[in-house]
Design a protein that fits this description.
Elements (H helix, E strand, L loop, with lengths): L1 E6 L6 H11 L9 E4 L18 E3 L7 H9 L1 H5 L8 E3 L13 H14 L34 H4 L3 H13 L8 E2 L18 E4 L5 E6 L4 E5 L5 E8 L4 E5 L2 E2 L3 E5 L6 E8 L10
Parallel strand pairs: 1-2, 3-4
Antiparallel strand pairs: 5-6, 6-7, 7-13, 8-12, 9-10, 9-13, 11-12
């Protein structure tokens, strides 16, 4: 349940929505209570002590420019989650496919994976310009610009980005995703400092046996090795749903990898112990 879509939950309206939330979600409702703030706004700190608010939602909005990308990858949710009550932090409105006829499936993947890896993994939503108003033939969208040519809702659910968010879900659920949390500190050099849309997001498990990174373009990366022993490499292609084996260079303290093609990939490094062989007695 959401109080309102695109709401202004802070500032002059903060007390109003807190009062309504406490009255409506008084502990007897069924389901999960959340909010849907307006674009590029963060309420996690302001609402941290509201017991009725079970999901902290935010909206990165519909843009692929530097300010939006930087807000997703390095914004307040990525910095504050560890100091706030443990709740799901979810981007409830990343890029909508086909919006303004500039947002593509690649933009949807970028926003989805960057958001998913910016906080402890909880979930992501998908949207398209023709889905949110349940657009039917002959109807016009009331905002987000001229709707002429926008696909209907039943055409939009077949968009590539829609299917690729499904791939994302199936991929991440192969792992104990609820244990993965941001670990940017193990990445030695951040490409996003030089090119905002090359930002590499990193998560890992508490025991350091699983390390994942979302790599938006072909890059060579170095990671601080977390455990003595060996890591095996897999590459997941979020556009095609294919996983391939990979290799790495292990210096003993640094793990170096190069993504396999000029596209976005999810790198998975899994730790494995080399079995000890017993020497036979003569």
């Amino acid at each position: 349940w959401l109080l309102v879509g695109d709401g202004t939950y802070a500032g002059a309206f903060e007390q109003r929505w807190k009062t309504i939330g406490r009255a409506v979600f008084d502990g007897t409702h069924q389901g999960v209570a959340g909010q849907h703030p307006g674009g590029v706004s963060w309420i996690g700190e302001v609402y941290k002590d509201e017991p009725w608010l079970e999901v902290i939602g935010y909206q990165s909005s519909h843009s692929r420019d530097s300010s939006t990308v930087s807000w997703i990858t390095s914004g307040p949710m990525s910095k504050q989650w560890k100091n706030l009550p443990p709740k799901p932090y979810i981007n409830l409105e990343p890029n909508y496919e086909q919006i303004r006829f500039i947002i593509t499936e690649k933009d949807v993947r970028n926003a989805s994976y960057w958001s998913l890896f910016a906080t402890p993994i909880s979930g992501i939503t998908y949207g398209a310009n023709g889905i949110w108003p349940w657009l039917r033939p002959g109807e016009k969208i009331l905002n987000h610009g001229e709707s002429q040519g926008t696909s209907t809702w039943y055409e939009s659910i077949e968009f590539p980005g829609s299917k690729q968010v499904g791939y994302l879900s199936k991929f991440i659920q192969q792992y104990r995703w609820w244990e993965l949390y941001p670990a940017q500190e193990i990445l030695i050099d951040q490409p996003g400092l030089n090119h905002f849309n090359h930002f590499v997001s990193v998560v890992k498990s508490p025991d350091n046996k699983i390390i994942m990174a979302y790599i938006p373009v072909k890059l060579t990366l170095k990671f601080r090795k977390q455990l003595q022993g060996n890591y095996k490499v897999k590459w997941f292609n979020p556009a095609t749903n294919l996983t391939t084996e990979g290799t790495l260079n292990d210096s003993g303290t640094v793990l170096s990898v190069t993504s396999p093609a000029d596209s976005d990939f999810v790198l998975v490094m899994e730790y494995f112990e080399t079995p000890v062989t017993k020497k036979s007695k003569k």
